[in-house]
Amino acid sequence: MNNFIYKLIKFKKDRLHLFTYISQGLKNGSTMTELLDSISVSYNHNNSRMYKYVMDTIYNMEELGESESEALYHAELINEEEKQSIEHIFSSEPYKAMDYLNTKTSNEDNLKWAVLMLFFPTILILILYIIFQPELKEMTEQMIAPVNDLSKNDIPVPDWFQNRDLFIKYLILTLGLMFGLFGFVEFLKRKYPKVLFTLFKIKEREFVLNNFEIILSLLKSGQSLMRSVELLSNRKTDHISSKIFNEIKKSMQEGDSNISEILSKYNIDSATVSYIMSGERNNSMIESIKSVVDYNRNRYDSLIKKLSKYLPLLGEIAMTFIILIPLIDIINLTTIGVMNFQI
């Protein structure tokens, strides 16, 4: 149970720190084993759960003779898809394998956090209303008690504060909308990637970055473009990549169309398609794909800044309405409502 909670809450943060440390060390000429040995001392001293993962990785490399990606995979630091993505990157630019894992994880979490920040303020306020509903009802009754003591007809407490039912219904509705949005995105990923890329531009940027960064590293390591496409088409857990690159692989084998034509079918950004088309015509795919990665990275960072700014703002506005609507009912009740009392 403790390990499950750690994986759920703290594992990603610790893994990010570990991979950043390894990446910087590899850039400076250290080996993977040296870096893991060095940081394991710190993890052991601090009684960190990452110590076991690091020691398992070292054992897999030194005793079992596994490659870096295999050792990380069997130590459960990365999953199978990530292993397939980085095993060829290590041969050309090892530090970029670590950078890729960190970037990919961050990319996948950005939309989730943006959506959570849209719904979280409303969910928090509704939970607080549910918890303190009896106190709010009591406060309202105290405010209208002087009038009710004299009035022939009692002024009723607003429906909001009669019981918790209304707040619970709105909380369930809000949670349903949030999880429904996540489910809708997942459904589009599996069935309609073209619609997904059209409605959620951030998912298009993630697709391009996550896949073409791998292709760029593979090409630099001496792999052919066809081999790179074959590797990406075998990513079973990434439904979009598998679908699109299987189509690209088939078209390249049959000679019917090229990569740029397939990408344009899925509403990929016209600049990205143009870069790829230029590389295909001029036989300069490495330079073109580097331009694709740089262009989409800039656009992606700009999009994330907007999402992190506007979605929390919308969430705060929604939260304000949720706070004010019940309170406005109380104000109306204790001002306009008391005018209708009868002696």
Structural write-up:
The mean pLDDT is 82. This protein starts with a helix and ends in an 8-residue tail after the last helix. It has helices spanning 2-9, 11-27, 32-45, 50-62, 68-74, 80-86, 94-131, 133-148, 165-191, 193-199, 201-220, 225-233, 239-254, 259-265, 270-282, 285-335. The protein is elongated and about 90 Å long. It is mainly alpha-helical and 343 residues long. Helices cover 79% and strands 0% of the residues. It folds into three domains: 2-78, no CATH class; 111-190 and 310-340, no CATH class; 194-307, Receptor-associated Protein, CATH 1.20.81.
Give keywords.
3 domains, 16 helices, mainly alpha, single chain, Receptor-associated Protein
Per-chain topology:
Layout: H1 2-9, H2 11-27, H3 32-45, H4 50-62, H5 68-74, H6 80-86, H7 94-131, H8 133-148, H9 165-191, H10 193-199, H11 201-220, H12 225-233, H13 239-254, H14 259-265, H15 270-282, H16 285-335
